[in-house]
Amino acid sequence: MSELPNNPSSPQSQSDADRLNFETLSKLVEVQGIKSNTTRGFKARIAWSLSYLTLLLVITPAVLIVGHVVLQALPHFQFSVLTSNTTGLGGGLKNEIAGTLVIVLGVLVIAGGLGILSGIYLSNYAKNKFGNFLRSSSEVLAGIPSIVFGYVGYIALVVHFHWGFSLGAGLITLSLMVVPYVSKTTEVALRQVPSGYSEGGEALGLSEGYILRRITLKSALPGVVTGIIVAVAIATGETAPLLYTAGYSQNLPKLAVTHSPLGYLTYAVWTFYNQPSKAAVQLSYDAAFLLIVGVVLLIVISRIVVSASQKHSENR
Amino acid sequence: MFESASRGEVADTVPAEKGRSELYELDPSDIVLKTKSLTLGFGGSTVLDGVSLEFPRGSITSLIGPSGSGKTTFLRSLNRMNDGIRGYRRQGEVLLDSASIWDSAVNLLQLRRRVGMLFQRANPFPMSIRENVLVGVKAHGLAKRNDFDEITETLLKEVGLWKAVSDRLNGSPFSLSGGQQQLLCLARALAVRPEVLLLDEPTSALDPFSIELVENLIAKLAPKVTFVVVTHNLAQARRLSHATAFFFQGRLAEYGPTNKIFTAPSQLDTQRYVSGSIG
Q1: Mean pLDDT, residues B171-180
Q2: By C-alpha distance, which of A175, A196, A179, A199 is closest to A187?
Q3: Which residue of chain B comes nearest to A205, CA vs CA?
Q4: Which 8-state DSSP code applies to residue A88?
Q5: Are B123 and A197 within 8 A, CB to CB?
Q6: CATH number of the A79-309 domain
Q7: Distances from the Cα of A78 to the Cαs of A93, A270, A289, B6, B21, in angstroms?
Q8: Higher-confidence residue: B58 or B2?
């Protein structure tokens, strides 16, 4: 206050008292601060340690499995595996690779299409009780064990409709199984799109479809793609529902809906691993290795697609 | 096509300071937009009761009043932005060039092309700056592909953004400042050649310098476009508008020439609001 001598309303004595109070207070705060800093530091270290520990728990099995498969498969890997069909308990995996690709593409189209459309419906239109009912139904669908899907597919499609073991039965069964993942992530991603986007579009006289296609869906794409990746990865890795519906074949897949059993990599992993012959076990590891490579490729491609589409995103 | 030259001339003759409303004559009989005892509500509650207002072509009208007085609900009803809100109900009419905007013959998308809107928070779309300007033109099929470059340049020059963005037309709009984003949104809205622009607190999130830019722009565009501006900035209403409507407790409390509302209001509430005693 001494630097303001012209101010008559603040006498010297009062400002001294203020300063005293302030000094006492700052000492108190300092002491408390040091104390709480040590406890805080201790708590923070525990939290960090727990975080690292759980991270380790998650990563270790993944690294062990991938490492084991790669170490078993790679040293003996022959490229003829890619170019020849399975014969008996040996040969290559050409028919299984082709089968898995056909299944992935089919699931991409069927589950991707159905999932995105139902996600759009759930996020934009299903705002009443019926919408909540649909949402819970979808969650129930996601919770049904895959073997149950397989058995239902078998009874309904393979037996009742006389489709036989077939590509159609396999695709429908697998797609229904993974649709909830796509629709859920699409719904959530669309809900997170700023409302200003659609409002701005409406105010400009853009049609609902135009806003959806050019603005909101584009903005939600990273979420949608994540859902599709999860769905396709699950579909690629499933064996049980396919055993019941797609059967198995040592020939290249027939592109027919019915009476077209086909091979797929997970069948090779599952069947050949339990065979006594060394070539069969080797084939099993090759199939697992190819599955891992495929999933990694899928993730890389999707990352590239997403990053290209988000060039003008608000979050960059 | 976009008559930027003529608009530019108008801008040069309009000084940036006050008294814009005196600079060109409005034809009071040429009413572009009109509400007739418009009553609006959501569910059981009535937000706004019996508002009759006229907006002469080329005028700037400010809607002022405390929060919750129904200004924004009123504004959003003028291009039917409330139609999709659950529980929304309305009585009375809004006439655009003497035709009801709720007539079954009215194409909603066309209506919104003619009556555009700018929001409180700048909301550029997640596409390039160029695409932001052109999106309405493309969606409404207003121009040929060959003209897109020229249209982009004209509009960006019109809002004074061209120098700042001409070297990054394909860049992200979110790299721009808040004020520039709002100007881009204005360019986007102008691109579809609206007759009326509804502005919902267009400058409340901007710094004083950007506010001046936007205000100058509105004043410059006004003879061609009719503006209805919701604002909490009383000085802005005073600087900018020909007429001012004061909304209070769900009613249109007073309406008149801006000068009169601010200097000689007839209602006590208006007097207290514009003088800062309430609000």
Answers
A1: 93
A2: A179
A3: B109
A4: T
A5: yes
A6: 1.10.3720.10
A7: 11, 20, 12, 75, 84
A8: B58
d(CA A197, CA A203): 10
B138 contact A CB<8A: no
Interval B70-125: pLDDT, tens: 999 999 999 999 998 889 999 999 999 999 999 999 999 999 999 999 999 999 99
What is the ipTM for the molecules in this complex?
0.85
Q: Does B178 touch chain A (CB under 8 A)?
A: no
The torsion angles phi and psi of A47, rounded to 5 degrees, stand at: -60, -45
Q: What percent of chain B has pLDDT over 70?
A: 91
Asked if A214 lies within 8 A of B110 by C-beta distance, the reply is no
Q: Who among B116, B127, B131 is closest to A204 (CB)?
A: B116
Q: Which chain B positions have a beta carbon within 8 Å of A314's beta carbon?
A: 126, 174
pLDDT digits (tens, 9 = 90+) for A116-138: 999 999 998 888 889 899 999 99
Test B119 with A201 for CB contact under 8 angstroms: no
pLDDT for B16: 38
Instruction: List the beta bridge partners of residue B226.
Output: B196
Handedness of CA B221, B227, B230, B235 (dihedral sign): positive
Q: CB-CB: which of A204, A210, A312 is closest to B127?
A: A312
Strands B115-118 and B196-200: parallel
Farthest-apart Cα atoms in chain B, separation: 58
Lowest mean pLDDT, pick from A35-49, A140-154, A203-217, B37-51: A35-49
Cβ-proximal residues to B38 (8 Å cutoff; 6+ apart), any chain:
B48, B50, B51, B52, B74, B77, B90, B91, B92, B93, B94
- Ordered alpha helix ranges (H), B50-177: 71-77, 108-114, 129-139, 148-158, 162-165
Which tokens belong to A129?
Answer: 């009780």
B105-125 burial by CB neighbour count: b if 16+ within 10 A, else e? eeeebebbbbbbbbbbbbbbb
pLDDT band at A205, cuts 50/70/90?
A: very high
Distance from C-alpha of A199 to C-alpha of A221, rounded to nearest angstrom: 19
Domains of chain B: 4-15+27-275 (3.40.50.300)
Q: How close B20 gets to chain A, by Cα (Å)?
A: 27
- pLDDT bucket at A10, cuts 50 / 70 / 90: very low
Q: Evaluate whether B61 touches B254 at the Cβ level (below 8 Å).
A: no
Interface contact B112-A205, CB threshold 8 A: yes
Q: Could you tell me if A94 and A83 are in contact, meaning their C-beta atoms sit under 8 angstroms apart?
A: yes
pLDDT-based confidence at residue B176 (cuts at 50, 70, 90): very high
> Which positions in chain B touch A203 (Cβ < 8 Å)?
79, 81, 112, 116-119, 189
Query: With DSSP H G I counted as helix, E B as strand and the rest as coil, what are the percentages for chain B, rounded to 5?
Result: 40, 25, 35
Of B172, B173, B192, the CB nearest to A204: B192
Is pLDDT at A5 greater than 60 in this prediction?
Answer: no
Secondary structure element (H or E) that encloses residue B180, with its range: helix B178-191
Number of neighbours of residue A261 by Cβ within 10 angstroms = 21
- Tell me which chain A residue has its CA closest to the CA of residue B172: A312
> And the tokens for B105?
């013959």
